[in-house]
UniProtKB/TrEMBL annotation:
Its cofactor is a divalent metal cation. The gene is nagA. One of its GO terms (biological process) is N-acetylglucosamine catabolic process. Pfam families: Amidohydro_1 (PF01979). InterPro entries: Amidohydro-rel, GlcNAc_6-P_deAcase, Metal-dep_hydrolase_composite, Metal_Hydrolase. GO terms for molecular function: metal ion binding; N-acetylglucosamine-6-phosphate deacetylase activity. This is N-acetylglucosamine-6-phosphate deacetylase. The lineage of its organism: Bacteria, Bacillati, Bacillota, Clostridia, Eubacteriales. Substrate binds at A139, N217, A218, R225, H248, I304, A305, G306.
């Protein structure tokens, strides 16, 4: 299979008029005027060819949630993500009792071991909770929040088939800093839902945390005398997640963040919950009722509870907010791949990587999606 006559977002971070050859589910060649002898030719007719989007923080969509704990829900999520061009997802848990998480992770393992070729690749778990701060719990259930426990974490990771790709930790909680030092060798450790100050957060990065969960949300903010978690993130080399729905963060702050952090550390996430892609109404997240109205998902007390967007909407909104198209695309592809250490496999249109591709028109309407070189039903 060879893609021709399009504008390709290459691994140089720019659009180029090149051809892309796919063989055996991988990108075989990228270059100008590639031979099409014996190949199925996909004529892009001037449209854009992009790497598949990667969402490293999503609880659910399409009426299904990771915490449903059923393979049917997982497949429903995969089928919904793919329609938005999201080819790789780190499905995200909520703060729940350890025995409940154990059951969820076991079901996830069974699903992942036998995953369909149709739909997004559910490639791992983002373990958001229970090792958080009660002061910055957000939409998490306080009674289930506990200090970080490395043995519990190892057990849950093993039950998932070693598929926990990220774990969220509030570093100021006694004992959690030691957890970071051990967990960093297993997966990406994220500073998250934390009331920690600047120095505590810098210490967490020094111990091995390399990412920051939904920057600005559920953490200490930036002040000129107490920089907080946000200031520490600025001052470090850590990746930062950013929810770009225009509700969690004001567009002006999003623009400022790109100016301060640059284009290589920001990972756009959806933080979507099951209502993404669904009508307004009452839904559930982590056992709590969530009310969705006017594009906002919130608990009864008004606390924001995830989003109802996807990566495609996020990219479009970033561009609407004034972010360069190329920067928005990096935030949805190669940056999250690097954050979870899978950039050797995916995240860009590079020879040897998975053939996860999407075709969009100038308005970013998705025309076709390929995962592992297989055209998806969208």
């Amino acid at each position: 299979m060879i893609f021709k006559n399009g504008s390709v977002f290459t691994d140089k971070g720019v659009f180029e008029s090149v051809d892309v050859q796919v063989q055996n589910g991988l990108i075989a060649k990228v270059g100008a005027n590639l031979s099409s002898d014996g190949e199925e030719v996909i004529d892009l007719k001037g449209k854009k060819l992009l790497p598949g989007f990667i969402d490293i923080h999503s609880h659910g969509c399409g009426g299904a949630d990771f915490c449903d704990g059923s393979e049917e829900s997982f497949q429903k999520m995969a089928n919904t993500y793919i329609r938005a061009g999201v080819t790789t997802v780190m499905t995200t848990s909520m703060t729940l009792p350890p025995e409940t998480l154990s059951q969820l992770f076991k079901v996830y393992k069974n699903f992942a071991d036998n995953q369909s070729t149709q739909g997004s690749r559910l490639y791992g778990i983002n373990m958001e909770g229970p090792f958080l701060s009660k002061e910055k719990k957000g939409a998490h259930v306080e009674e289930y929040i506990i200090p970080a426990d490395i043995e519990l974490f190892k057990k849950l990771n093993e039950e998932s088939g070693n598929r926990v790709r990220l774990v969220d930790v509030a570093p100021e909680v006694p004992g959690n800093m030691d957890f970071i030092a051990e967990a960093k060798d297993i997966c990406t450790v994220c500073v998250a839902h934390t009331n920690g100050n600047y120095q505590t957060t810098m210490d967490a990065y020094e111990k091995g945390a390399t990412s920051t969960t939904h920057l600005y949300n559920a953490m200490t903010g930036l002040s000129h005398r107490e920089p907080g978690v946000v200031g520490a993130a600025y001052d470090s080399d850590a990746f930062v997640e950013l929810i770009c729905d225009g509700i969690h963060i004001h567009p002006a702050v999003i623009r400022t963040t790109f100016k301060v952090f640059g284009e290589d550390r920001i990972c756009m996430i959806s933080d979507s919950m099951c209502a993404a892609g669904m009508p307004e109404g009452v839904y559930e997240l982590g056992g709590q009722a969530v009310y969705v109205k006017d594009g906002k998902a919130a608990l009864e007390n008004g606390t924001i509870a995830g989003s109802v967007v996807n990566s495609l909407i996020g990219v479009k909104r970033l561009m609407e907010f004034g972010i360069r198209e190329e920067a928005a695309l990096k935030a949805a592809t190669i940056n999250p791949a690097k954050a979870v250490k899978i950039d050797s496999l995916t995240g860009s249109i590079t020879e040897g990587k998975w053939a996860d591709l999407l075709i969009v028109d100038p308005t970013y309407h998705v025309e076709a999606v390929y995962r592992d070189g297989v055209k998806q039903k969208i």
